[in-house]
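Schema walk-through. Below, the input block comes first and the output block second. Nothing else is stored per chain. Lengths vary across the set, and this one has 430 residues.
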Amino acid sequence: MRRAVIAFTAFMGGLIFVFLAGASTAWAAEGEEVKGTLRIQGQPVEGVKIKVATDADAPVGEATTGKDGTWTVAVDKAGSYKVTLDQATLPAGKALRDPNRGTLTVQVFEGNARNVLFGLVDANAPPAGQDDGGGSSYWARVAQLVFEGLNLGLIIALGAVGLSLIFGTTGLTNFAHGELLTIGAFLAFFFNTTLGLHLLIAAPLALVVAAGLGWGQDRFFWGQLRRRKTGLISMMIISIGLALFLRALLLFLFGGGGESYDQYVAQAGIQIGPISATPKSLVAMGIEIVVLIAVGLALTYTRLGKATRAVADNPALASSSGINVDRVIRLVWAAGTCIAALAGILLGTTQNLNFQMGQQILLLMFAGVTLGGLGTAFGALVGSLVVGMFVQVSTLWIPPEMKTIGALVVLIIVLMVRPQGILGRRERIG
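--- output ---
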């Protein structure tokens, strides 16, 4: 037993060393650079000129945003640089949120790329806090933010449902769940850009592979740990290590830059009353709603769904009733990974793919699951919608950079009033 543990530890350590070494080589090869993405209401802004200079105003380079809104300027060495957005090149009707912040000074560290963000707004809209005299522009902005919050909430819900089901059936708080979103997005990217398949074909293939990975993950890893009676705290810590490993692996395989699918990168917006949306966002929301309804109906009416709820409620009693608990958990892992992969693919149609995209949304998924009630799929859905809605609507009163903090404050307040969450059940201890 001891030899097996030592051999396994050495094997995993060697893999991590190889991948981190490869990632370090990739970082070194890329060198220092300044980059960013220009978007307004989720849509990329093309043809905007960005100039980079030293602190002494010596020109370093310039770039023009592409169809996906991205730009990159390589710099010679680490140091402080001035990044200037040429406001004259902005498309008609677009402007900087703060015209005085057209030049930003950033620090670039050795071997790293520095992201620079410029906030853009609709130049035809009145300043925040003002309207056209009747309040119509304010309520139009509220409607737009509610729509965007619903879109974000549905993405969070897709990821949170799988996270909640896995917690409900196994008790595992899986910190590697965010990487399942990233893996799904990059599987579709591989089929789409490397193999040349259309995204409508690449996405279903990615979901099938993701489901297989989820099944295999429990069959050969988490299931073995449960069989050895590994404690939940130990498994949670293992999930953190697994998340770091998967993140390094994705960085090694796909690099640290932003990627995008070959299709549906930029689309013209359509106006629906006061709301501006793209066709892909409407289709994505339709898919998300259908999948979430299907999951809810499956949990309520199908034999597997009833077995899943029985295992989540009392695994020992479910087992004594003739339910194959391991089989149910394995199928939950497969379904949860597949749904998370779908969330990653849909998220990848609205932003650039990067190896940290799952990590960036993981905290919001945990907030949704905790707010809705741990271990309940319906609670994860409700909690995620509340979190997504508040994250977006809160920008009416607080800076967009702080919107995630506001969602976590709401989470704390709700849990102080109702510790079990919105749909969670109160439990008696002792």
